[in-house]
Amino acid sequence: MPDDPAAAEAAATGWAAGQPTPDEVARRRFTLYSLTVLCTGLVGAALVYFFIPPQPHAHTDNVVAGILLALGFVLAEQLSVNIDVRSGVSWSISFTEIPLAIGLFVAPFEVVLAAHLLAGVGTLIVRRVQDRVLYNTGAMIIEISCAFAVAHLVEVALRGLGPSWAGVWAGTLVVPVSSTLLALAAVYVLGRRMGVGAALPLLARTLVLGLVNASVGVVAYQVAAHAEYGWPLVIMTLGGLAALYLAYSGLLREQRDLEALADISLVVGRVGHQSTLRASDELDETGVVVGNDEWPTIAERIRDQLEASRVVLRLYPDAPGEPAVVVAGDPLPAGLSGDTAGPRNDPLLRLPGSHVRHFRLSDALPDVAEALWRRGVEEALVVPLRSSNHLLGVIEAHDRLSRWRGFGTADVRLIGTMASHVATAMDNRRLLAALRHDAYHDPLTGLLNRPGFRQAATEELREFPDAFVLRVDLDVMSTISDALGYAWSDRLVVAAGRRLRDAVGATAPLARLEGGAFAVLLHADDADEARVVAERLRTQLAAPYPVDRLTVEASAVVGYAPAAAFDQPSGVDVDALLQRADVAVRAARSGGEAAREYMPSMGQVFLRRFQLVTQFRSALESGQVSVHYQPKVALSDRQVLGVEALVRWRHPEYGALDPDEFVPAVEAAGLIDALTTFVMERSLEKVREWLSRGLRISAAVNLSVRNLADTEFPDRVADALERHHVPPELLTLELTESGVMADPEKALPVLRRLHAMGIVLAVDDFGTGYSSLAYLRQLPVDEVKIDKSFVLGMGTDLGDLAVVRSIVELGHSLELTVVAEGVEDDAARDALTAMGCDVAQGYLISRPLSDSRLEAWLRARTHRMVNRRDETVLTLLP
User: Fold this and answer.
1) Which of 133, 308, 442, 849 meets the CB 3.0–4.6 Å disulfide criterion with 854?
2) Residue whose C-alpha is closest to residue 311's, from 397, 381, 378, 384
């Protein structure tokens, strides 16, 4: 045999060196109990032999009777019925009382005892069940001794007063009672307590079965001895009874098997459904939540049902590594609990299919026999746990605990069904655990997502209320996506997440909120420490990222909010802290800072923004929102070609609002369609008014990203042109490069429909994007508008001057009209004229004007003339 089996368990459980394990103590106590039972039986047998007078029997009759009785005992044990005594202990009730009753009639004590021992102990030795030979030998001697002693006492007590068979019947009945009492004592010795409420029903069931068997044995002998042709009748009756017992045993076995299957399925699934998975929980190598301890319960339940001395449950990890090994019953010998017993090294674990393998030492191949010997067992049932051809684990059952037989067909079928249930339950648990994990984690980075961060941060803030929530925004994401595609942008996000994890440690709650935005719960003593950490995180994130053969420069902004300053009576709200950190990020970005702490005054800005959004529709209806117009003039002949419609809002509380303040808020709230429609309607009304006066002046309306993604927008524009009776060429729709590039697949079809209607399309703020040249050829546009930042810088920056000249040349090469915004002085106008720029717009010509002031400007600054096509035009006065 290999090393001491207890050593492995001691090492696994951390039991002190030199101190016996609980299983060793139980085995020693059972061995001592077995010796006590054997000694008690020998003493009792000696007393019966010497003090009870033997009945006279012929020597030849005794030999024949002994042989027949031994055969009867062997046959009776094969019809045994197993009853669960306690978790981990099962008692086998056989029908040895029937041949015993006959033996009390026909054979002396020593013959019956020898036959019983020969049948019982001989079978144990043949099966090589060595650890229970002492106990079973003592129990058998006590059973036969008690039977003969009680039979003699009853005969003496009832001599001449009762039937002659009363003593045999009473002696036979005492056997199952004594056997059960010995079993209950063994349960106590093994340390598995059993209450009176469980012991009494067991004793009652055993007594009922003993009554039946004793009666059958007595009746069988009386019929055989006194009836004509009695033995054939007895054989037929016993055959029918045996069939009845087999059927009953089969039904009982099926019931126990079904209960076991249900229990195992419930045990596997119960923890996954009842436990609360936290966002900080990770999945272990078996696909279940770390910390669950249901696997020892499952292994113990399988061992109880199979009545095995040991069950080994091996759970294979998905990634390369050692399997998780759970042992119920006798500990595994040292060296058999890790990868050294893996499928490649152990012939018992080479399981190509999904069926059960039954190995016996007596008929095994040499390598299998060696594997069984290394486990210290005589036989083993091995079955894989498979799901969709994926090996989840292996179940091993070693050495059946029955006093007589080993594993049979029913055991093979049962362990196979159990394995199927366990594999299915494991697969379901893996799926449930994966779904729960995905619900709290970002699929790209593996970090927490927003719900996961909310839960993890809430739990930590209960214990550590003095903490800070940091929001970190990586600002290079759109640039990477536009230039290299979303795959490279995702790689950058993953790299940034790794840097943050390395910086804050493995225990701090860290989440990816969206895009390049991350959140961290930071334990800091004060705001100064939080700022130092925030700036350090920003510096680490802003370090260059190697992307393929390129190096991408990144920037980051950090905002942080203290949880201690949260004064809500309901406690700390993580979402509110994240919103405050977001406010701090925006404040830092607008102020050009790397990191900034949230201040209560910052919240007023966003409260005002919220108020503007909620009041916008009523402002449209009440006349607070109006349209101003900024004229556009041809540089060649100073003709007023059109105006750009610009929205203005005079708030009753806040006064005149800058469009840059409320337009983004309106767009983010999904109200931009209403704003675009309002401006377009007012502009078309103005164009219709000019047409009625004989003037052909166009109006330009700015479009939003949402307008370009709306497939019904061209229909609404066509309806508005038709209602106002305005030619489509007098309406210009201005769009930005970023608006088109946000979703080109949706924007381009909308633009093509508008262009086909005859509407003039202009690219606003041209030159500020990153894909201008690539997209300009694809866009169905008629104009390009040079961004005013380049026009304003022409006089002082030669680079801006070169950009403007290049845009003018590019636009003309593509047969586009070129419009310059931000013309504020004569030098800029003259330079643009010299370059061949077509149209100018800016403060040099006019500021944006209200409807009435625009009419006054037209009267004062222009004069009417009729061109060669008999059209009335307005020309700017010198």
Assistant:
1) 849
2) 397
Q: How many CB atoms lie within 10 A of CB 186?
A: 21
205-209, 270-274, 726-730 — which is least confidently predicted? 270-274
Kindly tell me if the per-residue pLDDT of 277 is higher than 80: no
- Residue 195 has a CB neighbour count (10 Å cut-off) of 8
The dihedral of CA 142, 148, 150, 153: what is its sign?
A: negative
- Residue count of the chain, please give it: 878
- Same structural domain, 463 and 423: no
Q: Is 801 helix (H, G, I), strand (E, B) or coil?
A: helix
465 and 360, same domain (yes or no): no
pLDDT range class, residue 445, cuts 50, 70, 90: very high
Our count of domains for the chain comes to 4
Give pLDDT, residue 129: 59
Alpha carbon separation from 495 to 286, 338, 443, 501 (Å, rounded): 28, 35, 14, 10
Residues 464 and 579 in one domain: yes
| Structural domain contains residue 625 | no
Is the Cβ–Cβ distance between 411 and 287 less than 8 Å? no
Q: What is the span of the domain harbouring residue 57?
A: 17-223
Q: 169-185: per-residue pLDDT in tens?
A: 888 888 888 888 888 88
The token duo for 362 is 């007596």
Average confidence (pLDDT) over 127-147:
79
3-state SS record for 405-445: CCCCHHHHHHHHHHHHHHHHHHHHHHHHHHHHHHHHECCCC
Q: Which of 405, 440, 475 is the last residue in one of the domains?
A: 440
Judge contact between 751 and 719, C-beta under 8 A. Answer: no
Residues 424 and 500 in one domain: no
Q: Are 741 and 771 in contact (CB under 8 A)?
A: yes
Same domain, 304 and 330: yes
Residues 321 and 190 in one domain: no
Is residue 594 within 8 Å of 535, Cβ to Cβ? yes
- Say if 615 falls within a structural domain: no
